[in-house]
Write a structure and sequence with these properties.
single chain, elongated, disordered C terminus, binds zinc ion, 11 helices, Alpha-Beta Plaits
């Protein structure tokens, strides 16, 4: 039975029930808002109006033109400023203050003092509850710069040799664009500026500081410059994208003596040499060959003079693995091999691991969104979906252990150059010409995720007259 008769409508198809009168009031209010917003936005270089749903496709024209170019130029200036004053992990005071100042200039609320003091977040609030995060890392490396650039480091022995100045500036560029268009944003964007990515797990401390809470982050996106790949190109993969890394130190204690009387002592160098050889040969033999493992011995130190057999030798290195099971069994093999060879050589051997970052694992939905977004923004030929992971590592892994998302590689090699300096090289400088691509991708991923574009997530606000509708449905892959 109908709820009311035809003559009870107002002539526009609405029945005059109480909820529908409310709907009309809301519609009229939205219409006034749309008209005002169109009037305002006609002065600005955008193509959407208040009330329209922001989607990846609809924002593509907005990621070019004078306004976008201005944002890129501002990001380049900020990068040069950051590059001049690099700071090591957990000491990023000046960097953190500069970022906070820029966020406040953009009228973005800031939370400071996270992750040991220098970490901070900003929050751009749109019209929905769903929250997506973009990550920038702030720390530099203990490297003496050799780029010869006008904006080279002013701090002897410290430089942005991993390009974190560029990554942070691109997140600030995305923040400038997103905050400018916040009235069209179908959700919230949290900006994560973390300290100490370089081996000190700043991302973990950000998580422990509650950086992903209030509002809860549903997905996180981040990038890293990748020198072997051309500018304008991006790459990632679903599942494991980057390896887990652990560092180890092996201490071998023998008994020092005169080099002419080796039988009066116990030689820790001979024992160490046997350990180096055995680790290289035997650990990989105990792991399924289809599971990648890289065991690198990087230092072997012992002795003080050519005629002294020392008391002690020390070996250090890194272990890189792609699965928790391989990581566990490789560590167990190493400990057993070290102990057994120590017994054979009458040395006391201790093998200590410092747990590094876990593997960086992209969610299927995050990688799917990345692939579709990058295809739309950059063209499919500029998007690589890798068939196997990279073996470097990133503490972005900790964010992806807690929420959906995707980490990806951004090409930084100018196409005309055969080889660009590698990360951590004293001649590596994040190229300004790669900034626009990175900013576009960060904006589009945030908007795409919030709009539920491309991966079938319905993030549109529910019908205002039906409060029983769920605000969001779980992520699903489109078929
Ligand atoms: Zn890095």
């Amino acid at each position: 039975m109908p709820r009311c008769q035809k003559d009870q409508t107002d002539g526009t198809g609405y029945f005059l029930t109480a909820p529908n009168i409310l709907r009309k009031v809301i519609d009229h209010t939205l219409q006034i808002g749309r008209t005002a917003a169109r009037l305002h936005l006609s002065l600005n270089p955008v193509t959407l109006a208040f009330g329209d749903v922001m989607r990846t496709k609809s924002i593509i024209p907005m990621l070019a033109g004078p306004h976008f170019d201005h944002i890129v130029q501002r990001s380049i200036q900020l990068r040069h400023r950051l590059h001049q004053c690099p700071e090591l992990g957990y000491h990023e005071k000046q960097t953190s203050a500069l970022i906070a100042g820029e966020l406040r200039r953009l009228k973005i609320p800031v939370t400071t003092g996270l992750a040991g003091g220098t970490g901070l977040t900003g929050l751009i609030t749109g019209s929905g509850r769903r929250c997506v995060a973009l990550r920038g890392e702030m720390d530099a490396l203990p490297v003496q710069e050799q780029t010869g650039k006008a904006w080279a480091s002013r701090r002897p022995g410290v430089m942005h040799a991993c390009g974190h100045d560029g990554h942070t500036s691109m997140v600030l560029g995305a923040a400038a664009w997103l905050s400018r268009h916040r009235s069209l944003l179908p959700g919230q964007v949290k900006l994560l500026f973390q300290p100490a990515e370089e081996g000190l797990n700043g991302a973990l401390r950000m998580c422990e500081s509650g950086a992903l809470d209030r509002p809860n982050v549903a997905a996180v996106f981040g990038l890293h410059g990748w020198p072997p790949m051309n500018i304008g190109h991006v790459a990632t993969r679903s599942g494991v994208f980057l390896a887990a890394v652990d560092t180890f130190e092996i201490q071998i204690r023998g008994r020092g003596t005169h080099a002419a009387y080796p039988h009066k002592g116990i030689n820790p160098i001979a024992c160490g040499a046997a350990i180096v050889e055995a680790l290289a040969a035997d650990v990989s033999r105990e792991i399924d060959p289809s599971n990648t493992l890289v065991l690198t011995i990087a230092t072997f130190n012992a002795g003080t003079a050519p005629n002294i057999i020392p008391d002690l030798s020390t070996i250090t290195g890194t272990l890189r693995t792609l699965t928790p099971a391989t990581r566990r069994s490789a560590k167990a093999s190493m400990a057993r091999i070290c102990k057994s060879i120590g017994v054979a050589h009458r040395c006391q051997v201790q093998c200590r691991f410092t747990s590094g970052t876990p593997a960086t694992v992209n969610s299927a939905a995050g990688a799917d969104l990345f692939e579709r977004t990058a295809g739309q923004i950059l063209g499919k030929k500029n998007v690589s979906i890798l068939d196997k992971p990279f073996l470097w590592s990133e503490d972005f892994a900790y964010y992806l252990q807690r929420c959906d998302g995707c980490f990806f590689a951004l090409g930084v090699k100018p196409p005309a150059i055969k080889e660009y300096p590698m990360l951590h090289n004293p001649r590596y400088d994040f190229p300004d010409t790669a900034m626009a691509t990175g900013i576009r991708m960060l904006i589009a991923l945030a908007v795409g995720y919030l709009a539920g574009d491309t991966i079938g997530i319905n993030c549109n606000p529910p019908d205002p007259v039906d409060s029983n509708l769920p605000l969001h449905v779980p992520p699903q892959r489109r078929t």
